[in-house]
Amino acid sequence: MDTSVEISDIRHWVEDQMIRGRYIFTKQDVLDFGLPIKEVSVNRSLQRLEAKGIIMSPWQNFYVAVATEFRLKGIVPPSFYIDRLMAFLGRDYYVSHLTAASLNGASHQIAMVFQTMVNGGPIRSGVKNGTRLEFTLRQNLPLEFTHKVKTRSGYMTVADAELTALDVVADCRKVGGLSRAAELLVELCEQTKWDEGKLPLLKYFSIATIQRLGFMLDLIEEREQADSLFMLMRQTGKTVRKVLLKQTSPVTDDMPVDDRWKVIVNYKLEIDEI
Q: Which of 44, 95, 207, 225 has the smallest count of CB within 10 Å of its CB?
């Protein structure tokens, strides 16, 4: 126990942690401090503090002391605790899809959802403190194509623009559909660069995803980027076959096929930004 400060209850302990700039803690941290309180009483005290809005619990036994600035807004952004939460859960991760897009230049695409790609076993998404935490499972994370973004409490790992572009095309349902994905690409293209260093990134994705991305780059008139991606695609050694633009839309024999990307255009993209 830290004897430099006389702490008699959990609320006092939490307030002391906040004074020291420590806003994130676990139940085990409380138990390890050594207050003369039984574990069942610790649980009840934490529940009372959460009910009063002094702390929040985005995950079982994981807590965030709500700083005054967040208490006034009524929301603690997941960026404040996501890195520590993933460490607590023992998972690799990166901030992905819409959230990563907003951090990579697609500034007007901010949504009330915080999307994260994680490895490991099944993990449940849910709404915490007014924001939906949405997790997507992927066992082999391309962490070499991520970067650190400074947050109020430290740093978080965020997908690079190129990884984000591939993710939103690969799983367009996460961003609101193919047309929304194309709109995101319009903004992401200010940051993306499909040079030789991105060749290893393409190996994490199916050839169909790369074809769809290339087709969409041509469609939004990003010819130079489309040309660069096409050259990289050829270097992957993957076999290019005809692929549907939208997997869930019907296809007929008379639908056009893009000559370069071999994409069957079975869906009309509606993009406001073009």
A: 44
The count of C-alpha atoms lying within 13 angstroms of the C-alpha of 151, restricted to the half-sphere facing its C-beta, is 19
CA distance 166 to 151: 25
> Helix, strand, or coil here: 175?
helix
Alpha-carbon distance of 200 to 226, in angstroms, equals 17
Among 18, 53, 73, residue at a domain's last position: 73
pTM of the model as a whole: 0.92
- Considering Cα of 229, then 230, then 235, then 238, what sign does the dihedral take? positive
In a domain, 2, yes or no: no
Percentage helix, strand, coil for the chain under 3-state DSSP, each rounded to 5: 45, 20, 40
Spatial CA neighbour of 67 closest among 132, 157, 129, 109: 129
Domain span including residue 233: 78-264
Instruction: Return the number of other C-beta atoms located less than 10 Å from residue 166's C-beta.
Output: 26
In a domain, 230, yes or no: yes
Is the CA virtual torsion 50, 55, 57, 62 positive or negative? Answer: negative
Q: Tell whether the torsion through CA atoms of 119, 121, 124 and 129 is positive or negative.
A: negative
Asked if the structure places residue 271 within a domain, the reply is no
Query: What are the backbone dihedrals phi and psi of residue 162, each rounded to the nearest 5 degrees, phi first?
Result: -65, -40
